[in-house]
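Have a think about this chain, tokens included, and walk me through the fold.
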Amino acid sequence: MNAIYLRRKLKVILAPGHGETSPTALAALQKNLNSLGYVLDLEVCDRLRGYSSEELTNFSAALVTKLQVMVGAHREYRPMYPDFPRHVMALAEAELYWNALIHYLTNRLPSQDARARPALLGGEAPKVIALGSTEDFERIFIQLAGAKSALSEEDRSDLKGIVATYRDDILRLVPGEIPVKENLAVLAAALLESTTYAAAQEWVATRIATATDILRLAVAMSGGDPSLAEAAKFRQFRRPERRLLLSWLERCSAPTEDMLRWKGRWIRLGERLHPGEQAEKYPKAYAAFEVLRNDLPYETFNSKVERCLAAGDAGGAIQYLSSRPGELTRRLDHLLRIATDPDEVVAAFKVAAPKVSTPVVLQAMGHFAHRDEPQDLRTFFPKGNVGKVQAISNELPPLAAGLAGVVLAICEDALVERFAKLPPLGRCYIDPALKDFAVPFSQRSASKSLRALARGSRIPME
């Protein structure tokens, strides 16, 4: 628990101790932490005063190990007092050091000692480790589970770690809504693994709605990436797990179309689920696998849209896409280029915009804000690829004059109306320097670090 809490919030949870610690031992512990760039606040020190020597030793060893990993010093760290707490600083040295620490944390001067106080960390400001609470730690889980963007690998690991720690008790903390399907898959897999199977099954069953949800869950249960950015190797599922996944697939309204989007993945998964063994019990699921395995004809939603686009029938495509506002927004530029009456497309988008997710609207804004600017290349980062930017030729035909501005205004109006319904933030100040930092739409590819920046941010360097 403290490993996650420390890394995310620089806080620790301390149970009451069963002894008493000397001030010199606490000062020596602080000195050891200084070499890593950290210091314990006074509330933590007060709690540690009630620890026995053995409890303090265990706490110190665990804390130092976690901090070493956090700052990358697990191979080079040399503590001031390696045999802590057997060897500690002398009493006079500890008193001077403690006075310096009190002055740093509280800005108070010791009344009885006017001698010079040694600077902590050679004058550099250490990071303060504060005393936390169980309620504050549990908010980490609530925020991760309810995040409105895909989680990074580190976040997913923390989410699973908290579920494994709390087990059945975690169900009281699960938010009512999990906005991101990838995060839902990670959480559902963790619940099925770490909690009472029946209780987890009941919770997951109410939130699995599509075949792709089931595919993501199966990938997460196999330790793969639920974003589906790359193929996963499915593990062997137990018979109750196979029945469970097939029963959820059976109740999906149109599983075949959804499964065809990830045809190869589903064929591999079918080899693990053995749908033929349960063909009579789950006929719809079995029929969907038959379409995939035997390439039986099946017209999907996308094939209908693509047929309209290939024929230049923007009106026909709009009839299909109006039921899926996100898809309409992503294909908006294409529709505007082929439409004989662009106003029809604009009117359809104006109706759909309030129903489109905020990240997709922002992406559309970014596209149309620069749509009329001459650009030789378009650049983008593929999903799941952290380091490689892709550049393609920008050969988009021009739009009618002013059309991009009209779409941009619709996006802005939709966001203003949406944000106006949210509770006020109170008095806030937005630092102008934030204009150089990109807003992250997703955390799935975020690198593991103490300070993460979205790709595209600009920072000054000496």
